[in-house]
């Protein structure tokens, strides 16, 4: 399984989401690779992704994808991120 975190430059908020998604996976006992990327490279990076975590402002730029796109409102809310990862990947 693969999670991609997206932001404008691929180093700021996507980096925060990456770290928090990894914490969520550990807490849930799930295995997945987590990759932080910028919005310009999202199509290439997310080709084999199961989930994309991002802010509302980047959803339209993601375009068509087979991955489940999840909008995270607060990148520092570990509960929100853990719940989103659990909903998306917990049943697999």
Quick rundown:
The chain is α/β, with parallel strands linked by helices. The chain has helices at residues 13-28, 42-45, 59-62, 78-89, and strands at 2-7, 33-38, 51-54, 68-71. Helix 1 (13-28) packs across helix 4.
Summarize the topology:
Layout: E1 2-7, H1 13-28, E2 33-38, H2 42-45, E3 51-54, H3 59-62, E4 68-71, H4 78-89
Parallel strand pairs: 1-2, 1-3, 3-4
Beta strand count: 4
Cα distance spanning the termini: 9 Å
- The level of helicity is 25-40%
Judged by helices, strands and strand pairing, the structural class is alpha/beta
pLDDT averaged residue by residue: 89
Rg result: 12 Å
What share of residues are in beta strands?
Answer: 15-25%
As residue ranges, the low-confidence spans are: none
Backbone shape: globular
Main sheet characteristics: 4 strands, parallel
Number of helices: 4
Q: Order of helices and strands, N to C?
A: EHEHEHEH
Strand order within the widest beta sheet: 2-1-3-4
GO molecular function, one term: protein-N(PI)-phosphohistidine-sugar phosphotransferase activity
Pfam families: PTS_IIB (PF02302)
Organism: Curtobacterium pusillum
Keywords: Sugar transport, Transferase, Transport
Can you walk through the features of this model?
This protein is an alpha/beta fold and 92 residues long. Helices cover 39% and strands 22% of the residues. The chain has helices at residues 13-28, 42-45, 59-62, 78-89; strands at residues 2-7, 33-38, 51-54, 68-71. β1, α1 and β2 (33-38) form a beta-alpha-beta unit. α1 crosses α4. It is globular.
């Amino acid at each position: 399984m693969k999670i991609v975190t997206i932001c404008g430059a691929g180093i700021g908020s996507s980096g925060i989401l990456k770290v928090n998604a990894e914490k969520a996976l550990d807490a849930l006992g799930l295995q997945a690779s987590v990759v932080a990327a910028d919005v310009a490279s999202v199509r290439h990076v997310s080709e084999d992704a199961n989930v994309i975590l991002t802010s509302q402002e980047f959803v339209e730029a993601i375009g068509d994808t087979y991955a489940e796109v999840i909008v995270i409102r607060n990148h520092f809310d570990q509960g929100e991120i853990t719940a989103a990862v659990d909903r998306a990947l917990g049943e697999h």
